Amino acid sequence: MTQTNARALFITGIKNAHAMENQALSIMKPQISRIENYPDVARRLEQHIKETEGQIARLEDILSRVGEDSSTFKDWALSMSGGMAALAHTAASDEILKNTLANYAFEHFEIAAYKSLLALAELGEITTACPALEANLKEEEDMAEWLDANIRGVTLHFATLSEAGEKAKV
Ligand SMILES: [Fe+2]
């Protein structure tokens, strides 16, 4: 593969990651506003929203370095569909569980995306982008790990609240 073609694949991948991170924001933000009974989850989501905003800035920086203008991205539609996905869970009494599973899946999607982008960065010899991509990857792995460690606790807390008749509350 020529370096020009490899760079084109890389740039498309970075744009997709930019859309993915905006989707992540639109999934997490509505969750925080509804959580009352799971303050640890709310705090961790709050932290990851800040991290995600930093990740978006890193991606925009990478794009400007390869000569792309990030303000022209057409990822608004994707970002909306993420909002719809989170919305779909709000009617369920087990909303906190559904969101926990969805967040776990989404973090792993993001981890795979950054591993793929690192491979494309090497292929296109755009290795200056690697530290920023590795920083994003590390934050996704940390978030996935936190979710993994909390699936059991959140589920048991949900079960206790459910029995106490508080199942309608998140
Ligand atoms: Fe993430």
Describe this structure in words.
There is one protein chain. It is built from five helices and no strands. The protein is an all-alpha fold and 170 residues long. Helix 1 (3-34) runs antiparallel to helix 4 (95-123). The N and C termini lie far apart (51 Å). The site of fe (ii) ion has 7 residues, from helix 2, helix 4 and helix 5. Fe (ii) ion is lined by residues 24, 48, 52, 107, 110, 140, 143.
Ligands present: fe (ii) ion
Query: For the residues shown, what is the average pLDDT?
Result: 89
Distance between the termini: 51 Å
> Measured on Cα atoms, how large is the radius of gyration?
18 Å
Low-pLDDT windows of residues: none
Strand-pairing-aware structural class: mainly alpha
Choose one word for the global shape.
Answer: elongated
Based on DSSP secondary structure assignment, what is the total number of beta strands?
A: 0
The helix/strand series, from N terminus to C terminus, equals HHHHH
Count helical runs: 5
Helicity, as a percent range: over 70%
Major β-sheet annotation: none
Q: Roughly what fraction of the amino acids lie in strands?
A: under 5%
